[in-house]
Amino acid sequence: MIMRVCFEYARSSSVRGGCRQRLDGGRRGQAPSDATRSHAARAKPRDDAWRAAPRSAEQTAQADRGGPGSLCARAQRAALGRRTARRCLARQRAGGELWIGVPPFLSELALEGPIDRLREAFPRLTLRITAGWSPALLQNVERAALDAAAVMMPASFPMPETLVSTLLGVQPTVLVAARDFALPPGPLPLDALARYPWVLSQDGCGMRSALSRAFSAAGLPFDVAVEAFGSDLQLSLVARGAGLGIASAAALARSPHRDALRIVETADVEPGINVWLVHGVLPGRLMRPVELLRERLVAVLEEERSARLGGEAQIPAN
């Protein structure tokens, strides 16, 4: 833009100078053409008006030496302002696609408030949401198949150093059984829990991984009797006596089967699971959307925690 404005100014000056030379040439015996006379007649009033415009001596000197008052300097400032405005607008209007992964136990949280907020803040951004187990989501982020993912992993799990991992919170987990399920009283050690069948998600679930690690480290059997997708179905089967289960405290608090369940106390299983937001190197257009996603997920997890506090005391423990 700056070069074009300066070029136009130089070209118009050259044209005016050329017209004067041709007119002078006419006085030397070379008759100017009709086009030359017409252009000179139009250019002279503009030149006279520009010269007659009131200007201070400093403005005249600046214009002569290309200073802040010159045409090129003004064009530079105008172009710089437009570029700055475009950069600000680009930051506010992130476009393209954002690929996000969420595990099943977080899908309701992540797909309601946070995703709606992203759509409102960045209407030109196309959101691509995929659900999957946390280990697979981590691999997809490492391969750049996903831009970002919310994952749930045991506290003992080491997060990949190649990714940017932000801890969003800790989701409490509880072991559950039917109220009439035959269990010994008091907190149960891991070897006692190994005697019973389990109702769990498919292999790859973060909570199942936490249990599997604990039993494997102790050299104990781990009997998964039923693999069921979704906490509602799992808690329904546990309430009917199909086996022991594990669920997030939030899922248990809102379950319609909570009155038929009780919490199984133990000190040998991690009582919570970490919730992370992970991503690789992001292009500039996605940095603010991912940051907003992080902020909203933290807020939603805190709201879930506040809503859960009152309900936990109403669920009996063994």
Automatic annotation (TrEMBL):
InterPro entries tied to this protein: LysR_subst-bd
GO biological process: regulation of DNA-templated transcription
The keyword Methyltransferase belongs to this UniProt entry's keyword annotation: no
Start and end residues of each LysR substrate-binding domain: 92-279
Pfam families: LysR_substrate (PF03466)
GO terms assigned for molecular function: transcription cis-regulatory region binding
Region described as Disordered: 18-70
Keywords: Transcription, Transcription regulation
Highest taxon listed in the record's lineage: Bacteria
Family: Belongs to the LysR transcriptional regulatory family.
PANTHER family per the UniProt record, alphabetical: HTH-TYPE TRANSCRIPTIONAL REGULATOR, HTH-TYPE TRANSCRIPTIONAL REGULATOR CYSL
Full protein name: LysR substrate binding domain protein
Organism field: Burkholderia thailandensis
